[in-house]
């Protein structure tokens, strides 16, 4: 009799644990989504949207879908950075601690739209906002980070990879026409390693800073080469037209 009761108790406990984990996993996704859409704008001073987030507390695997970083005031594009999907891995137990341990973040095929020149553009403006919010690059934070900004929670990211990125750019060098260029892969390891970890703001500054740097490199290098190509094409066309006109005038005098 006692054995049957014990078995029922054990089964009951297992069922409760499973239910708790399922419910926690369901709410964890909404917590991540709310966190991104709450903390993001305080750092970037732009709209930050996320379609969905899901994390399994059993396996630690998850994904973030439909991430969109808007443009700062004064820029016309619908977005500055857009990502369809981010795969991530988390050590489940760390979710309930003071430092969330992220084993990997893989950003797939992001789209970056840049407006302006190499020195002043939408991405550099966003970086200025992030620097001001986090006190980076010698600036002081606009205001102390409160609990709503995730000040108490630290992060550790073992492996960050951004791959398959594209840069959309339209400048005078491209004749005002939009041009899409490849963005080199970006890879970081051991971010926030150690007991102190890294804040969400510091992580944003690190990753966004590298994206901005690589994008501007693409802008100044590849677009400049493209501009030279367009200029050479235009020069060639002009020379061809001049030769035709000269030949026509010569033929006209020959007939006389």
Q: What features would you describe in this structure?
A:
This protein is of the alpha+beta class and 256 residues long. It has one domain. The protein has helices at residues 2-44, 122-134, 200-255; strands at residues 48-55, 61-69, 81-90, 99-108, 111-114, 154-163, 165-169, 179-183, 186-191. Strands 1, 2, 3, 4, 5, 6, 7, 8 and 9 form a 9-stranded mixed β-sheet that branches. A hairpin with a 5-residue loop joins strand 1 and strand 2. Helix 2 (122-134) runs antiparallel to helix 3 (200-255). The longest helix is centred in the last third of the chain and has 56 residues, at 200-255. It starts with a helix and ends with a helix. Mean pLDDT is 77; it is low at 14-26, 140-151, 233-238 and 245-250.
């Amino acid at each position: 009799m006692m054995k049957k009761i014990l078995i029922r108790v054990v089964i009951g406990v297992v069922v409760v644990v499973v239910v708790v984990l399922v419910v926690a996993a369901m709410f964890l996704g909404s917590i991540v989504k709310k966190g991104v859409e709450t903390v993001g704008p305080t750092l970037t001073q732009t709209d930050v949207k996320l379609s969905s987030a899901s994390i399994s507390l059993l396996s630690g695997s998850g994904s973030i879908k439909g991430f969109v970083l808007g443009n700062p005031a004064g820029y016309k594009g619908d977005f500055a950075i857009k990502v369809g999907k981010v795969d991530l891995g988390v050590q489940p137990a760390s979710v309930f601690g003071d430092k969330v341990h992220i084993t990997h973040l893989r950003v797939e095929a992001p789209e970056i739209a840049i407006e302006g020149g190499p020195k002043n553009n939408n991405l550099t403006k966003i970086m200025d906002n992030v620097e001001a919010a986090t006190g980076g690059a010698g600036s002081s934070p606009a205001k102390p980070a409160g609990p709503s900004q995730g000040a108490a929670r630290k992060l550790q990211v073992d492996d960050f990879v951004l791959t398959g990125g594209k840069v959309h750019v339209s400048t005078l060098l491209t004749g005002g026409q939009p041009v899409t260029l490849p963005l080199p892969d970006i890879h970081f390891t051991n971010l926030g390693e150690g007991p102190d970890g890294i804040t969400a703001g510091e992580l944003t500054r690190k990753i966004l800073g590298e994206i901005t740097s690589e994008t501007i490199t693409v802008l100044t290098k590849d677009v400049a080469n493209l501009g030279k190509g367009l200029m050479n094409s235009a020069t060639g066309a002009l020379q061809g037209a001049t030769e035709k006109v000269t030949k026509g005038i010569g033929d006209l005098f020959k007939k006389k």
